[in-house]
Amino acid sequence: MLSDSTQKRIAELKRKFPEKRSxxxxxxxxxxxxxxxxxxxxxxxxxxxxxxxxxxxxxxxxFYTYFPKQGVGKYHIQVCTNVSCMLLxxxxxxxxxxxxxKIKVGETTxxxxxxxxxxxxxxxxxxxxxxxxxxxxxxxxxxxxxxQIIEELKxxxxx
Amino acid sequence: MEKxxxxxxxxxxxxxxxxxxxxxxxxxxxxxxxEHTPDELxxxxxxxxxxxxxGAGFPAGLKWSFVPKDSPKPRFLLCxxxxxxPGTFKDRALIENDPHQLxxxxxxxxxxxGAHRAFxxxxxxxxxxxxxxxxxxxxxxxxGYLGKNILGSGFDLDLDVHRGGGAYICGEETSLMESVEGxxxxxxxxxxxxxxxxxxxxxxxxxxxETLSNVPHIVLNGGEWYANIGMPKSTGTKIFSLSGHVDxxxxxxxxxxxxxxxxxxxxxxxxxxxxxxxxxxxxGVSTPVLTAELLDVKMDFESLYEAGSLLGSGATIVMDETxxxxxxxxxxxxFFEHESCGKCVPCREGTRWIxxxxxxxxxxKGREQDLDLLRDICxxxxxxxxxxxxxxxxxxxxxxxxxxxxxYEYHIKHKKCMxxxxxxxx
Lengths: 159, 426
Fold this sequence. Notes:
The structure holds two protein chains of two kinds. Chain A is of the alpha+beta class. In chain A, 43% of the residues lie in helices and 11% in strands. Chain A folds into two domains: 4-61, Arc Repressor Mutant, subunit A; 75-154, Glutaredoxin. Chain A has helices spanning 4-13, 24-34, 40-50, 54-61, 83-87, 90-101, 143-154; strands at residues 75-80, 114-119, 131-133, 136-138. In chain A, helix 2 (24-34) crosses helix 3. In chain A, 42% of the residues are buried. In chain B, helix 6 (99-113) packs across helix 9 (209-221). Chain B is 42% helix and 12% strand. In chain B, strand 2, helix 7 (127-143) and strand 3 (158-163) form a beta-alpha-beta unit. Chain B is globular and about 75 Å long. Chains A and B meet through helix 2, helix 4, helix 5 and helix 6 of A and strand 3, strand 5, strand 9 and helix 13 of B.
C-alpha cells in the first residue's frame, strides 16, 4: 500500500525521537501527504515500520480527527463552523456547498471528487468564513469565490 | 506606540533569515549567549513581568526558574503552537510571517533553562505554518544558530517541528506532552508540574508562541524596558485577535490595558454595517461573555478578571444586535462536546448533556426547568476535572445564562430566537 519512498520516510522518523512512539503522528502526516487517507492495512504497515504493535498505533491515531480514513474524496472540503465563522454566515456557506455539490455534510460526491465536512475552529477567524481543502486554507469566502474554487478544482487545479 | 512583535509582520520576505537579520534579527541571541548566564536571563525575564500569552498568564520567568538546577536529567523546551481556542489566530500570523523571531526566542529560552532539545508543537491544520517553520529551522542550522556549539558558545540545541492531529486538548500543556510522546492526548494530573516531570518524564518548560516571540526583544532592551509597557501587572503588548461583527477584523498588537472600546472602534473600525454592539467574548470562547455596557474595560489580565471575565488568549469575538446568544452558546457547547478528550467523566458526559439541552432549547423544544438543569450540570463539571477544559466548557453556558437570561427564557417560551442573524454569506 505504501510506496518505497513513503516507507523510507516513516522508518527514518523512528530515529528522530527519544522514544519511537513519538513518530506515530509524524508518520501519519507522511501518510496524509502521500496517500491522503488511512485504512487498517496502512496502520499495520506504519506499526511495522515503527516497530510497534498495530493496536499501539491504532489507539493513538483514532484519537486525532485530522487524519481521514479511506473513503474521503480527492478534495476534502472542511468548513469552519465555529463562532467567528458562524457569525459571518458559515452555516449558509455549508448549505451553499451542499446544494452546489448535491451532497450533505459527511458525504462524498458520486465521482469521488469532493467530501464535505463541517469542522471546528481553523484559527483563521479574522478572515471568516473559512474552509480548508486538503492542506490549503481558503479565506474571506463569498459565493463567487466558492464557485471559482470548485470550478478550478473540477478542472484539476492543485489545492 | 511602536509595535514590538508585529513591527515587520507585513514585510513580504520577513520569513527569510536574511530579511530578518536585515531588520535587526538575531542580535539578541549572541548577546544572550555571550553576555549573560542562564540565571541572568531568567532574572531578566522575571523582571520584565512577561506572562504567558496562551491564556493562563503565568509569569514566564518564574516558570523557567522552576526547572531544577541540580537535576542530571535532560531538559526540554516545548513551544505551544497548538493555537486552537476559537477566535484566536495570532500565533498563526507570528509563525507564518516572522518565524525567526519565534526561533530566536526558543533558542534563548532553551539556553536559559539548559535544554538541548526543543520541539514546536503546531496544530495539524497549520500545514503552511509548519512548512515555514521547517524552512526557517533549516536556515538556522546553515547559519550556525542551531546545532552544535551555537555561535561558538559551546551551547548545543536541536529543534524540530511536531505537527498535531486536530485535537483542541493538545493546547493544554500536559496533553501536549502526551501527544509529543505519541499517546492519546489525555491530560496529566498536576503536580508534579512539567518543570520537574515533563516530556519523557524530564524537566520541561512549555511556552506559547507569542510568549517566546517576546524574548529576543526583552534580551535586547532589558526587563525594565518591557515592564514599563502596558499595565503594572500585565506588562508589554498583547496581540488581540479581533473577529466577528467588526468592520476590520484582524490581529492588533496594542499595549496591555487598551480599552475594549479603542480596540473595536479605533482599530477594528467599529461594528459592521453600523449595527449596534450586543456582546463581546474577550479572550476566546472559554472566557465569560461581556455585555456592551462594559466597553470601557481595560484589556489586561487583572482588569478583565475584575470585570468578571478573563483575558485568555486575547481573542476578541464581537457580536452585534442580530446575534442570538443562545445560538452562540449552543455552538460553543457543540465544540466542547467534540473536544472533550474523554478522560474525566464530568467533562466527557457533562459536555454531551449540555449540548443536548442547548440543542433542544435552540430548536424550540426547551423545557422550563432546563436552565436550572444546565446550572446543576455545570456546577458538577467545574472544578471536577483533571485539566481546565471542564471549567472552560461551563463558562460560556453559565455566563450567557447570567447576562442574557431573557433570551433563554424567550427561546423556551416562544420556541424561537429573539433575533435573527440574517443572510451573512453573500
